[in-house]
Structures are given as C-alpha cells and as structure tokens.
Amino acid sequence: MVDKKQLEEVYKQNLENDIINAIAEIKGIDLRKAFDIYYSSKLADQIEHDSCGIENMDAKYLAEDLIENEPGLFK
After folding, report:
1. CB atoms inside a 10 Å sphere around CB 11
2. What's the CA gap between 65 and 63, in Å, rounded?
3. Angle CA(44)–CA(50)–CA(55) in degrees, nearest 5?
4. Quick one: DSSP state of residue 54?
5. 67 in Cβ contact with 23 (< 8 Å)
6. Domain membership of residue 26 as a residue range
7. Count of the separate structural domains present in the chain
8. What digits encode the pLDDT tens for the residues 11-58?
9. Long-range Cβ contacts of 38-45 (<8 Å, 24+ apart)
10. pLDDT of residue 5
11. What is the structure's pLDDT at 51?
C-alpha cells in the first residue's frame, strides 16, 4: 500500500515539473531557465508549504499566473 505522504510528494514533484515545462513552452525558453525562474518564484514557495490549496490547481494555469504576476523574474 502506498503511503499518503509519499503520494503527495510525488504529486507535488509532478506538478512542479509540469509548471516548469509550461513556463518553458509559453515563454519559448529552455528548461534550465524555466527551472531557475520557477524556483525563484513565490509560487514555488507556496507549493512547497502547501499554502492555499494551490497545489490542486492546473499546472498551465499556475504557470500563466506566475508569468503574469512575477514579470521581474523574466529579465
């Protein structure tokens, strides 16, 4: 039987990967740059700390929200 905590961690990792891929696709940048942008964002911190149920939202929506609300990360 799968431990609920382990399952949540796998889900969180997959969500982060999907957000990074969406950022790279939307902005036309390489994955390494998207990775750096994501982990410099408030969104990464919110997901890490499970705040506001944000980890249950769609990855593409979260990527678009990050792009719109944290434009300083894309300089």
Report:
1. 12
2. 5
3. 70
4. G
5. yes
6. 4-74
7. 1
8. 889 999 999 999 999 999 999 999 999 999 999 998 888 766 777 789
9. 38/66, 40/73, 41/66, 41/70, 41/73, 42/70, 43/19, 43/70, 44/16
10. 85
11. 66
